Structure formats: C-alpha cells, structure tokens
Amino acid sequence: MSLNKFLRTRTLSVDTSGDEREPLLSTSRRRSPSLGPAGFMFYDSDINSDIESAQPRQTKNKKQLSFLYSSLSPNGIDHEQVYKKLDFQLYDKSDFIIKEAQPRRATNSSLVTIFTVWNTMVGTSLLAMPWGMWESGPLLGTLLCLVMASVCLYTAYLNVSIYSKNGKPGEGAELFVLIKDLIGPWAEIIAKLFSVLVLAGAAIIYWILLSNFFYHNVYFIFYYLRNDSNMQPTWSTTVLCPNHENFTSAESRAEEAHDTFNSIWNLHRTVPLYLILILFPVLNFKSPTFFTKFTSLGTMAVMYIMFFALVKFFVFGVNVSHDPESEYYTSFAHWTTFPKMSGMLTLSLFIHNIIINLMKCNEKQENNKRDLSIAYILVCTTYAFVGLVIYVSFPAAKSCIQDNILNNFLTGDFMTLFARFFLFFQLITVYPLILFMLRNQVLTMIFQSNYPSVSSVVGFNAVIVSLCVFFAIVFPQIGHIIRFTGAIAGFIHVYSMPCLLKIMSEKADGSLTTTSMIIHVAIPILGFINIIAQFIV
To answer: Which of 13, 68, 179, 370 is deepest in the core (most CB within 10 A)?
Structure first.
C-alpha cells in the first residue's frame, strides 16, 4: 500500500504543411506525474481528473495528420503496421486517412519498471512482518512468502499477458475494461467493489498507525519537556512485551495515578478523534496535488525500516533456541496459525488492479515477464528480510512480538523515536491520497463524477473517517485487518479474476485445454480456502 512513479509523454503534434513542429517520435519534455498507493496516476496539472477514466490528451486538430498516408506509407509497406508503430488509432481500417492520434506513452527502462513495481507493493505492512513470522514460524513463514509470491506473480502476469492480447490501448482503467469485455459487466462491478475494499482497508490501517505515532510522539515531547528521566533519547537494548500479564501500559498507569494529561491524551480513546481536526479539512479538497510532492518519502520509509531491522539485529544478536524451556524457544512452523501469514501476504503482494498500468510503460515489452519476476523476488526478499531479522534477534519471548513492531520498543528509544516521527509525517501525506482514490472510485460509480458536490464529498469523507476512527478505538489490530482485507479482496483480484480472464481468453480463441481449465479453477479454490482459514485461526 506505497507511492510510486509513472512517466508520460507529450502529445504528438504535426503541422499539415508537412513540416513537423516536433520530431514524430520525440520523447523530449516528458513530464513525471506522481503515483499514489496502489498505482493510481496523479498528474501534476490534472490531479483532479477522474483517475480511472482519465483519457490521454488528444490533438486539437484531427485533420493535422491526414497527410500521413502519402508521406509516411511508401509502396510495399503495410499501412496498418506504420500506424501501429506511430501509436495511431484507426477508426476505419479501410480508410487510410488517420482521423485521430493517440499520444505516445512515455516508456521506462527495465530497471525503473522493476523499482516501480517493488516500490508500489512494499509499504507499512513491513511493520507487521515479524508478527507474521511468529504466527507462522520462521521456516514456514519464509516458505509461505516464496509460494505466495510465486502464485501472485503468475496471476499478475496473467493480467499483463492477456491485456497485451485483448486490451484496448488508450483506456483509463485497463483492467476493468478488460474484465468487462472478456467476462462481463457484472465482473467489472465486482472487481471495482473489491478494489474499493482494498483502499478502505488501507485507510483504516493508516488511521490506526497515525493514531499510534501521533500518541507516542506527543507523549514523548510532553514528558521530555518536563525533564522526565524515562523520556530521554537513548540507544535502548530493552524491548517491551505488551502480551505479558504483568505488563502495564501508560494508559493504565495514568488511570491509577489520575494523571490529567494521560486522561486527555489516550491512545485508544481520544487520539483517533484528535486526528480528525488535522486531516478532515484537507480531505475535502478537489485535488490533493500538494501531497503528491512527498511521494518519495514512501521509498525512504521502506529503506529506514530495513535499516532499523539491521541495526537491531547487530545490537541484539541472535536469540533463538530449540529448548522448549528457553525464553527464546523458536518453533520453525506453527501449523495452527500460519494462515494469518498467508492472509497478510496476499495483501502485501497485491498489485493486480494496476499492474497493467505499470508494465505497459516498460520500454521493452518482451521483458515484461523477466522484469515482473525480478520485482516480485525483490519484494519477497524485502518482506522476508525484515520479518526474519527482527524475529531471530528479538531478545524476549517471541510471543511478545506485536503486529506493529515499533510497539515493542521504548518510546524514548532513539531509532524508534525517529521512525515514529518520520512515518507520521509520511502517512499524513499518504492518507489524503488514499481517500482521494477511494472517493474517486465510489463517487464516480454512483454519480459519474468524482466531485459531484461539496455536500456529497464531505458526507462521503465523514463516513470513511468515522469508520477509521471506529477501528482505531475498538479494534486497532493492523495485522488482523491486513490479513482479512488481503484474503477477501485477494480472492477476487489475485486468485479469481486473472484466472477467469485466462479461461475466457483461451475460450475465445479456441485454445482452452482441460489442463488449463483445471489449473485456473484450482487457484481460485485456494483463494477461497485462504478466506475460510482466516476465520478459523
């Protein structure tokens, strides 16, 4: 659920006199829009356009290109191939007069494409990976990461390959259009609804994390200014165990001492409400352009979490034991609770609803399979690295590990302190983008406009923010929210839709085999089992 980058190119423009205003295949003066979480495009100048239905800019004068047949299509050259290379759209294949031009799409190198896919998938779920390793066991958790990454890679590539065969260039929401064309309008509606579920889940998770970071940051500043000896920045080697029966939280101590500040500043009662004062006003703007300027913070946040894990590993060392009596006892596999990890990984490896948008910008389309595979290997490695490094070095009972690993460290711990300040600012810039995308999808489906009126936008934001506040107060467990959201939405976008697209595509061209049918029916069944397992463990 991190921010990434797309590139787009300027519209091709040709003078009817026969002189080019710019070279026909010029790639100069490309502009780089920002990309929101889940890969939705945010252009610098038209951020308030409908993201899903945003159409590329067209040339103003359709007659500008009428000369191209005579000037660019010499005898002996297939006319359609000439047009195809120039990215032109033919409305009538029997008419060699080009009626409208499609703008050339800016392309990225393989390296940029790989990094973009990696950066899109890896996000704040890194904070929950050590908890996932505890729930599944380090060995089984690593194997799950490899298996889930392989399945997600395969189904993501199905979307890309089927689009290259059946897609319509120039559409704004390529996947939804492809689903509508090959499966039917009912499938398009389902796909959009579960895409909304992913964004809603991300909004809830971010509000919980924002509340947590906000609480600890202000808590530290307040007691630091009071010269509290326990709130001095330090390189702590101590970890907390909130699961332990003797653990006493700051809120509990405040209630016992009747501390006024702690009564007002309460993590699960008041802080989620205070966030409304900061965030709600900016959620109602037509365009969140300002916040797109901070999208690079997502990459920095991921890098810092990896650095955080590595430093803690060198500080704590290896703390694992095969002795059941040891505090550091480690079971390599937890067969009764491992589905929690599979549910988490489904969302963590989820990129299927925008993978077409990312990969069709790859300069060499023949490298799509290779580049996508490398990106998934890097994503899997990143998740496994953070999860394993913190898990094996954690200097207490592994059952103490929280679904937000920062909760296991003292508020005054220097690295934890910096992480919370940095991540708070980063998520403050991300949350309006998440709500913008969510609002865009829902209101466009209902009103055919992403900003039908001020009242409808304010009302929609009020409903979503109320939902986020409810979870932050009643159920602030990001690990469980990630796994349920991932399993349910993943059943549609990761397991089912790509396989249905494959079946319908092969059925249309007469290449569907029994083996292919069995494989692409079995994958959605596995996705459904993953959902059921979340309610059992």
So the answer is: 179
Euclidean distance between CA atoms 214 and 158, whole angstroms: 41
Sheet with 41-42: strands ordered across:
4-5, 34-35, 41-42
Backbone angles phi, psi at 34, to 5 degrees: -90, 160
For residues 505 and 493, give the distance between their C-alpha atoms in angstroms, rounded to a whole number.
17
Query: In the chain, what are the helix, strand and coil shares in percent, each to the nearest 5?
Result: 65, 5, 35
Per-position DSSP letters for 80-92, written without gaps between them: HHHHHHTTEEPS-
Total-model pTM: 0.79
| Residue among 243, 345, 339 at smallest CA distance from 537 | 339
d(CA 532, CA 481): 15
Residue 426 in contact with residue 127, Cβ under 8 Å?
no
- Count CA atoms within 13 Å of residue 117 on its CB side: 36
Asked whether the beta carbons of 485 and 203 are under 8 A apart, the reply is: no
CA distance 103 to 264: 56
